[in-house]
Design a protein that fits this description.
CATH superfamily of the largest domain: Glycogen Phosphorylase B
Oligomer: single chain
Number of helices: 18
CATH architecture of the largest domain: 3-Layer(aba) Sandwich
CATH class of the largest domain: Alpha Beta
Number of domains: 2
Strand order of the largest sheet: 3-4-5-2-1-6-7-11-12
Distance between the termini: 9 Å
CATH topology of the largest domain: Rossmann fold
Low-confidence stretches: none
Bound molecules: alpha-D-glucopyranose
Radius of gyration: 23 Å
């Protein structure tokens, strides 16, 4: 057991900034461990070493005790190593272990999907079985026994059941508690029933009462069932997955069985990276007292996107995966009407092919108002946050979302749908008492979306009111400190 003060946490994840990122999980996996360590706890991270991670740059080195370990995946004997480095933060450095196996990770630059076929790698089951098993070897070989293993998403979700079966005889693992954080219940790690044999789990789990769901191996379901505690990345999302079938992606009953162990802790943002006063990636830094400098960013943004700079016309920014869940089916349906409004719209992101095509066409059709960059570019993301007047996130559901928080601190007013983390971090503006931080629409319908954008445009014309709104948002504190303290309380609660 840990002393009352300092906890040992092993944080297992499939992506971490700055090493590798496809989504918000990578940001959380970097910021939260750092903050926990700043608070005096001992944290170590485990992540796969994908081919895209630069060994030299990050000084990833061998650990003799963790070299050439072996395990079985089905009948296959797999050799791997855990190599070590540090996640260097501004105040602390966090020990990080890279799971190194050429076949499963080293030879691939992409994380989960085959870049050529555009589909999930066929052996994702084997890859993340290996990640799960390696965690036990790591603890055993190092003799560093965590109080809590903090798991993230389906890729790590077999760990609790491994602890309770294959590894249950080892004394070292006995008192470890597991917390599974669900960043997106839509991603479950579903494989055919035949994959069960690869897990090496006892046959009595090879059914829907065990780790199968609807007769398929389902990693996330296994995690939901066997983790000691579960959390999601916002309070509202934790409630929605219990109630709304479409949001729970079929796992509503599973999650309801664990309702008393389910918590919602909203993510924070990294205020060293996302801070308009210090951001080196934007055209001109600005703050509450130098708001006019934001306009320089607006001008730069227009130029980058090849749009005419018209300071009086509001620019709406979007940065997102281009997929239905993020609201792109709704956006597509409403696009013509949006383009009829007196605005400019800039979009950064990649995603489903149909949306690439749609936006490429739209860029030609509405060349004066709309421009997009269908790729990923971190510098451009910062400039969009800094240079836009408004930021649109019409998500169908959103476990937490980070861009709405970045927007607020950059004085860029979010227009969001009332769901998950968006509902928890943006307060709808009320013209009567002038309270609120953004614009929130309820129904996933064109009418609601358009009317809400119109409300924002109207207020934008009232310079004073708009400036007040900007300043209110810029003052909100989204730092990780609060969230990480909530995690600490939760860890303590679990190990009690
Ligand atoms: C997932 C969710 C997103 C959340 C992020 C980090 O990407 O879709 O809403 O912000 O994880 O928790």
């Amino acid at each position: 057991m840990a002393s009352a003060k300092s906890l040992k946490v092993l944080f297992v994840t499939s992506e971490v900034v700055p090493f590798v990122k496809t989504g918000g999980l990578a940001d959380v996996s970097s910021a939260l461990p750092q903050k926990l360590q700043e608070l005096g706890h001992q944290v170590r991270i485990v992540v796969p070493k994908y081919g895209s991670i630069d060994e030299r740059k990050y000084k990833i080195h061998e650990v003799v005790r963790l070299k050439d370990l072996t395990t079985k995946i089905g009948k296959k004997e797999v050799t791997y190593s855990l190599r070590s480095s540090f996640l260097i933060g501004s105040k602390v450095r966090v020990q990080i272990y890279f799971l190194d196996n050429e076949e499963y990770f080293g030879s691939r630059h992409s994380l989960y999907t085959d870049p050529i076929k555009g589909t999930n790698y066929k052996d994702n089951d084997e890859r993340f079985i290996l990640l799960s098993k390696s965690v036990f070897e790591l603890i055993d070989k190092l003799g560093w026994v965590p109080d809590v293993i903090h798991l993230n998403d389906w890729q790590t979700s077999l760990i609790p059941i491994y602890q309770k079966t294959l590894y249950k005889e080892n004394e070292k693992f006995k008192n470890i508690k597991t917390l599974l954080t669900v960043h997106n219940i839509g991603q479950q790690g579903i494989f055919s029933k035949t994959s069960f044999a690869k897990t090496g789990l006892p046959e009595n789990l090879n059914n829907n009462k065990g780790v199968l769901f609807k007769d398929k191996l389902n990693f996330l379901k296994a995690g939901l069932k066997f983790a000691d505690t579960i959390s999601t990345v916002s309070e509202s999302y934790s409630k929605e997955i219990c109630k709304i079938p479409e949001i729970s992606y079929g796992l509503k009953d599973e999650i309801n069985c664990r309702k008393k162990d389910l918590y919602g802790i909203v993510n924070g943002i990294d205020t060293l990276i996302w801070n308009p006063e210090k951001d080196k990636k934007i055209a001109k830094k600005f703050s509450l007292t130098s708001l006019k400098n934001k306009l320089v960013n607006k001008e730069e943004l227009a130029e980058k996107f090849g749009l005419d700079f018209e300071p009086e016309i509001p620019t709406i920014g979007m940065i997102s995966h281009l997929e239905d869940n993020k609201g792109f089916d709704l956006l597509k349906k409403s696009f013509k009407e949006i383009m009829a409004l007196d605005i400019k719209l800039v979009l950064l992101g990649t995603g489903e092919k149909k949306y690439h095509k749609f936006f490429e066409d739209a860029e030609m059709k509405y060349s004066e108002k709309f421009a997009c960059y269908l790729g990923f570019d971190d510098d451009l993301a910062h400039l969009i946050e800094a240079g836009s007047d408004m930021f649109l996130m019409p998500s169908k559901y959103e476990p937490c979302g980070l861009n709405q928080m970045y927007s607020l601190v950059y004085g860029t007013i979010p227009i969001v749908r009332n769901t998950g983390g968006l509902a928890d971090t943006v307060v709808n503006y009320n013209p009567k008492d002038k309270k609120g931080t953004g614009f929130v629409f309820k129904k996933y319908e064109s009418k609601d979306l358009i009317n809400t954008i119109k409300k924002a445009i109207t207020l934008y014309k009232d310079k004073k009111a708009w400036e007040r709104l900007m300043k209110t948002g810029m003052k909100v504190n989204f730092s990780w400190l609060n969230s990480s303290k909530n995690y600490v309380s939760l860890y303590k609660n679990i190990i009690k």
